[in-house]
Each structure stands twice: as C-alpha cells, then as structure tokens.
Amino acid sequence: MRRGARRPELRLPPLEPWDGGPLNPDGDYDGLELRDADLSGQDAAGARFMDCALRGCALDGTRLSHARVLDCVLTAPRGVGTDLAEATLRDVELTEPRLGGTQLHGAVLERVVVRGGKIDFLNLRMARLRDVVFESCVLVEPDFAGAGLERVEFVDCALKGADFGGATLKDVDLRGAAPLEIARGLERLSGAVISTGQLLDLAPALAAAVGIRVE
C-alpha cells in the first residue's frame, strides 16, 4: 500500500528580530526572524537554524553547506547559486521561492513542503528526500540523479526536464505533476505512481528507454 508524505507541523515560538549582523560559519541561530535581510555572499556553512523565520531574504551565493535548518519557515526567498550542499532540512516550510541554481546535492530533506514559486536548475543529486511535498510550484530541470526519494509528492506542480538517472523511488506520487517532463531516468520510475494520461504521454519515451520499437 502506498504511503503518503507526512507534512511538517510547525508552531513557531515568539521570535526575536535579527540584529542585522553577518551570519557566521557554525553559528547557532534560535528563535529569530530575519525579515528582508540581504544575506548575499555570506558564509554560514555548518550553522544551525532552529525555530526561525526567514521572510523575503536575498540568498544570492549564500553559503549554507552542511547547515541544519530545523523547524523553520522560509517565505519568498530569492537568489541564484545558494549553496545548501549536504545540509539537513527537517520540518521546513518553503513558500513562494524565486531561486536558481540552488545546490542541495547530498542534502537530507525530511518533512519539507515547497509551496508556490519557481526554482530553476535545482541540484538534488545524491540527496535523500523523505516526506517531501512539492505543491503548486514550478521546477525547471531539477536534478534528482542518484537521489533517494521516499514518500515524495508532486501536487499541482510543473516538472520540466527532470533528471531521475540513478535515483531510487519509493512511494513517490507524480500524478499531480503537469506537465511531467522527464529528460533522463525513465527506467528509474519503479516505486512511483503516475496517472493513465501521464502514461500515455510518456509511452514513446518509455518504449525507447526499454528498447521497444513502435512502428
């Protein structure tokens, strides 16, 4: 029986406003609200954010590799080249992002919802996603190559040019993806559920992937 994704249940405490200073590597940030902050180019590799809200922040080239983002809300973040490689995101709501080239390769995402917005060239290579929901968002050429996806749902989500090469899927629901465009890795869709209409759309590519000639 297919199991659905568990969504985060966030109840943030009263938050303190961020003092506007620079982020620091391995910093510890707890119960803070960062509103309209320009964090571009800052280095917070290895930092921990817990019970925080980031609202309208600029993240161009922000380094957050190996960071831990726990029980946090990110609203309308924007930026190109944000580095979250090998980060951990747990119980996170990401709403209306405008991001490009976000690096999440090797990251761990658990109980994460991405709602609205658009993310171009999202790099999730070798990442581990469990209980993740992409809802009402546009993903352009997302890279799931080598990733492990378990209980991942796409709901009213545009999935354009996705790469699932070498990925492992379990209880992944692609029925809400429209369009569903898979550039690579069709043969890795075992463990996913798609609709009849999607099957018809993918049939020529699926046939080609398994070496069936249709005449």
Task: Give a short summary of the structure.
With about 220 residues, this protein is mainly β. It has one helix and 18 strands. The longest helix is centred in the last third of the chain and has 14 residues, at about 195-210.
Write up what this structure looks like.
With 215 residues, the protein is mostly beta strands. The chain is built from one helix and 18 strands. Helices cover 7% and strands 42% of the residues. The strands form two sheets. Strands 1, 2, 3, 4, 5, 6, 8, 10, 12, 14, 16 and 18 form a twelve-stranded parallel β-sheet that branches. The longest helix has 14 residues, at 196-209. It is elongated, with a radius of gyration of 18 Å. The termini are far apart. The relative contact order is 0.11. The model has no long low-confidence stretch (mean pLDDT 95).
Radius of gyration: 18 Å
- Order of helical and strand elements: EEEEEEEEEEEEEEEEEEH
User: By helix and strand content, what is the structural category?
Assistant: mainly beta
Strand content: 35-45%
